[in-house]
Amino acid sequence: MKKTIIHIIAACMMLPLVLSSQTQSENYVVSKTYKVALQENELSTQNPDSVSTAITYFDGLGRAKQSVLVGAGKTGSLEANNAIPYDWSAGVPTNSGFYNPFGAGVNVITNGTTPFGHTDLLWEGSNNASNYYDGGWDTNPIVIDNTSAYRYTVWMKKTGNLEDGGVYSLARNVHTLNGSFKNYGNFFGGDLPALDIWYLVVGYVHPSGYAMQERIWVSQGFMT
User: Fold this and answer.
1) Residue 195's closest CA among 90, 57, 92, 100?
2) What is the dihedral of CA 85, 91, 96, 97, to 10 degrees?
3) Last residue within a domain, chosen from 109, 143, 177
4) Tell me: the pLDDT tens digits for 122-150?
């Protein structure tokens, strides 16, 4: 089972398409740039790998607050295997692949604006002062190939009160790089940096026998 990592790098692009929208007092601009020349009648049927999407979010004063760039790598198909397919429906979560482990009244699937500026179904979790764990999902166990690497990604956004609870992204029954077994291995746990901003949380499960390599990540997101 193979996984492919998307590289966010600069590339030559053509035919920019810019869209803008507004949510309450904030705005965002979506720019789609095609990496190969296309006819107008081909725009709706292009390969997703041949277009990059840039979204810039602005606050109520028109100041840029966040930028997201997706699909800016090379053209061509990406070989990937999604181990957690989903088909959500609006309302109380009932999908067999994702389930609500923390009781009633803390999760709902609703329409909202995605990190890419589109309207789609979002999983909305709320907190309950009487419970330690609140909104969120769990999944059924996934059969893996322990000679392969796996990547877990989820977009998160927090609203309301920044200090009112934290967020967690984790995998069960894994070993740390020093060989220690963890029933619950956190990819991330704590507070997001700011309210009302989408953050992409990425976790990796390395293959058995993986030798750790030191890397330094700078603020621009490039590895040195």
Assistant:
1) 57
2) 30
3) 143
4) 888 887 766 666 777 777 777 788 888 88
